[in-house]
């Protein structure tokens, strides 16, 4: 299983990091070893002093596909959730400055939090989904899928030009604004349409 992540998919997040607005989706990957195991705390890595939370809508692929057309993309996933794309921002900034790949800052062990999946049929519209991250019970990030620059179906079509999508692959669809550092003992909870789908502790 692989994890395909989209960067810079929300205007307000692009602005908060003073990034350029992309003309095509920004794509990177995490290996399966990045998945934070269920019931495990997130252990801050030693190589960073500035690990940020990024809550994102996530999609689980349910059918093998390549060169998927946007109008058929909805047939390739049945379940959605929220997750965290943990990012070692200090390291990412260094890599970005040198034009180097981001993997060390984005794909390290435990950097992919995956919430409990829900059938997409539970939702009336995937283009108007609210999601939220709380830190120690305070809301720190709030997003809505209607603010995505590229919608889920467009992202699936786009990434499938490069990578064959397989059953169980997960797509992280980008984070809204409000990213910030986490500290030991923080408790992070992710919600989709008000439903809690993960709760993790930082160590
Ligand atoms: Zn992200």
TrEMBL record:
It holds the Pfam family FAA_hydrolase. Transmembrane segments: none annotated. SUPFAM superfamilies: FAH (SSF56529). InterPro entries: Fumarylacetoacetase-like_C, Fumarylacetoacetase_C_sf. It comes from the Bacteria. The keyword Magnesium does not apply. Residues 2-189 form the Fumarylacetoacetase-like C-terminal domain. The keyword Metal-binding applies. GO terms for molecular function: hydrolase activity. Keywords: Hydrolase, Metal-binding. This is Fumarylacetoacetate hydrolase family protein. It comes from Flavobacterium erciyesense.
């Amino acid at each position: 299983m692989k994890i395909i992540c989209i960067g810079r998919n929300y205007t307000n997040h692009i602005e908060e990091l003073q990034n350029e607005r992309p003309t095509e989706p920004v794509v990177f990957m995490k290996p399966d070893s990045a998945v934070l195991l269920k019931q495990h705390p997130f252990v801050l890595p030693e190589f960073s002093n500035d690990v940020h939370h990024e809550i994102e809508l996530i999609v689980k692929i349910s059918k093998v596909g390549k060169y998927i057309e946007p109008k058929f993309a909805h047939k390739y996933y049945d379940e959605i959730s929220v997750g965290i794309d943990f990012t070692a921002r200090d390291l990412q900034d260094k890599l970005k400055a040198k034009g180097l790949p981001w993997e060390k800052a984005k794909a390290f062990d435990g950097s992919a939090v995956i919430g409990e999946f829900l059938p997409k049929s539970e939702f009336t519209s995937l283009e108007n989904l609210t999601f939220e991250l709380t830190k120690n019970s305070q809301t720190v990030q709030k997003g809505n899928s209607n603010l995505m620059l590229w919608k889920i179906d467009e992202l699936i079509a786009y990434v499938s030009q490069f990578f064959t999508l397989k059953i169980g692959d997960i797509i992280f669809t980008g984070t809204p604004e409000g990213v910030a550092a986490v500290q030991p003992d923080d408790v992070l909870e992710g919600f989709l349409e008000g439903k809690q789908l993960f709760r993790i502790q930082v160590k």
